[in-house]
Amino acid sequence: MIFNHLFLLAVAATIVKADFFANFFDDSACTQNGGIGVDLRNPGCLGEAGRGSVFIPNTGLGTLDDNQFCLVITSSSGSCTCQSSSNTFTATGFCKVLNPSDQSYRFISGACGPNNC
Questions:
Q1: Which of 23, 65, 73, 93 could form a disulfide with 58 if both were Cys (CB 3.0 to 4.6 A apart)?
Q2: 37 in Cβ contact with 24 (< 8 Å)
Q3: Which keywords, in A-to-Z order, does the entry hold (predicted)?
Q4: Would you say the pTM of this structure is higher than 0.90?
């Protein structure tokens, strides 16, 4: 019984510490001019052209399927109209280098689909 209570407290503490907000930066090392946090669970279009990197947070969910996301990248002039490239990742806290010539980004849950631009 005590073990169950301790386990529930540990799970609750992990959820409280969870971070789902990615930040885009101007440089390639996630250190200069960080933008406002963007929720990984929101699939909306981000016009972040010219950015050099994005810090992917540690959601605290480990390698669970619910912790897999896709960064969809549009390189053409159309904002989020298609997928030029993508990156499937587990949100464990890392800096992803971006191509500053890319035009827009969006996060979706799960694995990436095929490019369609």
A1: 93
A2: no
A3: Signal
A4: no
